[in-house]
């Protein structure tokens, strides 16, 4: 275990003098004579002692626009300050680091956290100023510095953050624990275990969460003990972390806790049991799926049964499909049966018989969830008997069902799916057009190239991005000029695809061009 007391002495000795910590005026003073103070702060920041060899190792540039941009940090309007922070994060001139750190004490929490995230984007050149801020007398500076150091991801900050777990201010301790979880260093395990006994609830929560991220077996027993914490929030984080650690020794204690747990706690236990994938949980999960008084608990229990994946639950779920009146719960059951059918292919024929009728269900207002789930499940089976029913759902009155049907058809091994999928590219709803484009890209049929090329002009950025990606899979070098024309398309792509978060159309274009170019070079 790291010697925190010894490290503290060394850390303090190594830090810059207090003069290097940005000192801030009070909120009232900051808003008086803004321009005079801003100019003074900028002069100090622009002449700060950042080593030239350190700057040379980074990709940042010294931009003549910087002084004019920095003045915006002192603007009285919160939105203007935020926009300035975002601009500085893009500019990445290292002289902006200390002025950004000065905003750690901004009276608007959104502004101070935005400044912390912006400083983290500067990389290693921000390490020294952030460590100085972590040693500041200001609680706000220490809190935001811990936040930024976690985002920065540099393990050289571990010792300083371990010291911060003993900070007199509880919010700083909690933020230091969160940052240590992000850094993933084994030296934090024992200090974080000790924090499970902190007086401050949020510190215990963050410590429990961080221990899950560190994936160290030493945390299993302390987290099991944390299941007795007086605060539900702490217990929930402990349950989540135990699931991440993946030790099945925790299954029995979680099952014992299930019957007396509160609503949200039960949901977390059920999700954990699904992730741990232990057959001990099958009967208790099935009982919750069929009989728990809380609708959400029943839904999550059905989903967990799909992850555990035991064929013994197929028949009970098939029966429950016909007896429940809850369309949303029924959609969960159908999804789980689809997962089980993929695992136990000998049940596919009977599952087809059970699920096909739900593909055209119109019994309730939420029945479109049932139809969409049935389309997804039947697509998973890849059985030709589902082809015509799925094709019919491309004309469903609900766009959600049409989109899921398009996605499901990809797994049906029949060339007849291509013309109907091409027709989805002219659907009135962008979600259907996007899903049709994605499906055509996966099918690998060159008949889709021209229709997908036309879709590059679509008014919706997500649709354009899906068409671009599909052409990346299908296209030839002749499609490159069309893709190149979208290289300046900065439209943000907001979809449920995990690998597309915070990406733009031009990012997808770059990947598609690279894919086509590499394929051309290899051919």
Automatic annotation (TrEMBL):
Xref: InterPro entries: ARM-like (IPR011989), ARM-type_fold (IPR016024), PBS_lyase_HEAT (IPR004155)
Protein name in the entry: HEAT repeat domain-containing protein
Organism: Dictyobacter halimunensis
């Amino acid at each position: 275990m790291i010697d925190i007391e010894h490290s503290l002495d060394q850390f303090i000795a190594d830090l810059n003098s207090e003069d290097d910590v940005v000192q801030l005026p009070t909120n009232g003073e900051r808003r008086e004579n803004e321009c005079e103070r801003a100019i003074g702060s900028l002069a100090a920041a622009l002449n700060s002692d950042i080593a030239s060899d350190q700057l040379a190792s980074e990709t940042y540039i010294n931009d003549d626009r910087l002084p004019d941009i920095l003045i915006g940090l002192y603007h009285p309007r919160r939105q203007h300050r935020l926009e300035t922070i975002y601009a500085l994060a893009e500019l990445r001139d290292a002289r902006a680091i200390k002025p950004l750190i000065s905003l750690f004490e901004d009276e608007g929490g959104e502004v101070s956290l935005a400044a912390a995230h912006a400083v983290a984007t500067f990389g290693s050149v921000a390490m020294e100023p952030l460590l100085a801020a972590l040693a500041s007398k200001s609680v706000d500076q220490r809190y935001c510095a811990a936040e930024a150091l976690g985002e920065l991801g540099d393990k050289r900050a571990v010792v300083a953050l371990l010291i911060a777990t003993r900070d007199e201010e509880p919010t700083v301790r909690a933020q230091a624990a969160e940052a240590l979880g992000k850094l993933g260093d084994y030296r934090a395990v024992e200090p974080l275990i000790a924090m499970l006994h902190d007086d401050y609830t949020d510190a215990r929560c963050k410590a429990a969460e961080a221990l899950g991220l560190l994936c160290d077996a030493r945390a299993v027993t302390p987290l099991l003990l944390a299941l007795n914490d007086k605060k539900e929030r702490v217990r929930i984080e402990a349950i989540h972390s135990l699931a991440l650690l993946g030790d099945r020794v925790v299954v029995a204690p979680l099952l014992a806790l299930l019957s007396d747990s509160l609503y949200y706690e039960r949901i977390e236990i059920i999700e954990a049991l699904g992730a741990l994938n232990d057959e001990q949980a099958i009967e208790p999960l099935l009982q919750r799926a069929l009989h728990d008084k809380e609708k959400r608990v029943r839904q999550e229990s059905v989903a967990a049964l799909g992850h555990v994946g035991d064929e013994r639950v197929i028949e009970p779920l098939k029966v429950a499909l016909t007896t429940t009146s809850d369309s949303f719960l029924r959609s969960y059951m159908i999804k789980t049966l689809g997962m089980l059918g993929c695992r136990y292919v000998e049940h596919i024929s009977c599952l087809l018989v059970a699920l096909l009728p739900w593909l055209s269900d119109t019994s309730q207002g939420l029945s479109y969830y049932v139809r969409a789930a049935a389309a997804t499940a039947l697509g998973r089976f890849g059985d030709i008997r589902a082809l015509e029913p799925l094709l019919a759902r491309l004309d469903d009155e609900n766009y959600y069902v049409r989109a899921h049907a398009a996605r499901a058809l990809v797994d049906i091994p029949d060339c007849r799916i291509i013309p109907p999928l091409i027709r989805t590219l002219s659907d009135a709803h962008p979600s259907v057009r996007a899903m049709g484009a994605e499906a055509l890209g996966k099918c690998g049929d060159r008949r889709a190239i021209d229709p997908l090329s036309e879709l590059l002009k679509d008014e919706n950025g997500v649709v354009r991005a899906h068409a671009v990606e599909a052409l990346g899979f299908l296209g030839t070098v002749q499609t490159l000029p069309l893709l190149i024309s979208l290289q300046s398309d900065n439209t943000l792509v907001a979809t449920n695809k995990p690998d597309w978060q915070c990406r733009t159309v031009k990012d997808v274009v770059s990947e598609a061009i690279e894919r086509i170019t590499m394929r051309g070079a290899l051919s």
